[in-house]
Design brief:
The protein is an all-alpha fold. It has 15 helices and no strands.
């Protein structure tokens, strides 16, 4: 019986890893891909006893499922362009900006056309380094505050997963896309400007790999996950919290100034992070129940 459970767990994990890779060639429906990929982290927990390596693998597979689900709307670019919303965030941000888009106002007052200056490069790098911040925060908890790791990881990846609902239900274009397509005033995209200069020939393949779905702006998961990271770091100490919040504020400003997000995207991201933070204790009994079920399967697999 135990060998059968382990074999099933390995099979589920393998299917979860393979489904996103084969989805285009096999024309797998998105629900099949997401379900298979989302089952893989649970399967790994059944197949292996608890350890730091298993925790890292579980988080990595969780993000594998997220990335696949995040990218799938862009598998059919024409269909995505038909569904994308462009106008509503422009209208909301014009109200928030008292008649002008905040990003346009900031670039006009602080920017210098044709160059990305030192302070702007700092903002660009804050944006690029975001790829490390949410997962680095979870890894910090695992290594230095292991008692906080389970709840912290659940909160962080809960923000990621819930944000996907917005990307699928209400695909929304970022401000640079609206400007390029005549729906908003001219707006520079400094991340690309600096990326082309700094990374040279490596920029296009790198951006093509990392920017798998350009029409996923609402809510801003860049900001939402950075806010959650700041909360989790604050729980561990005042210095860690100060670093976390300094980064979140810097990134939030940069996302608007660089033309990557609207202010309303950030507001929605903040609401998402705070909502997960508030609802987390109420969801704890359900999560503990799921954990106990996985642990029972894990014990049976090793009996």
């Amino acid at each position: 019986m135990s060998s059968a459970i382990r074999a099933a767990a390995w099979g589920i994990a393998a299917a979860g890893i393979a489904a996103p890779l084969a989805r285009r060639r096999l024309r797998l429906p998105p629900p099949v891909v997401t379900t298979a990929a989302a089952a893989a982290p649970f399967a790994i927990c059944v197949a292996f006893p608890r350890s730091r390596r298993r925790d890292v693998a579980t988080c990595a597979l969780q993000m594998w499922a997220y990335i696949a689900t995040y990218e799938m709307p862009a598998d059919d670019p024409e269909r995505q362009r038909e569904r994308v919303r462009i106008s509503y965030p422009v209208k909301i941000d014009r109200v928030l900006g008292l008649g002008e888009l905040p990003g346009v106002r900031l670039q006009r007052r602080l920017g210098r056309p044709g160059t990305v200056r030192g302070a702007e490069q700092v903002l660009v790098w804050a944006h690029w380094l975001w790829f490390l911040v949410p997962h680095g925060t979870v890894l910090y908890l695992l290594l230095r505050r292991p008692e906080r790791f389970p709840s912290g990881a659940a909160s962080m990846y809960g923000v990621f997963d819930l944000g996907l609902i917005g990307y699928w239900a209400l695909p929304t274009a970022p401000p640079w896309y609206a400007a390029q397509n005549g729906h908003a005033p001219e707006l520079r995209r400094m991340m690309v400007e600096h990326g082309e200069v700094f990374w040279k020939d490596g920029w296009e393949p790198m951006y093509g790999f990392l920017g798998g779905n350009p029409l996923a702006a609402m809510p801003s998961l860049h900001f939402a996950t950075s806010v959650m990271a700041a909360h989790l770091l604050t729980d561990t100490g005042p210095l860690q919290g100060a670093l976390g919040w300094s980064y979140a504020v810097t990134l939030g400003f940069g996302l608007v100034y660089l033309g990557e997000h609207y202010v309303v995207d950030l507001i929605a991201g903040l609401a998402l992070a705070e909502g997960v933070r508030r609802v987390g204790p109420r969801a704890a009994p359900l999560l503990r129940g799921v954990s106990r079920g996985v642990q029972r399967l894990e014990s049976a697999a090793r009996a």
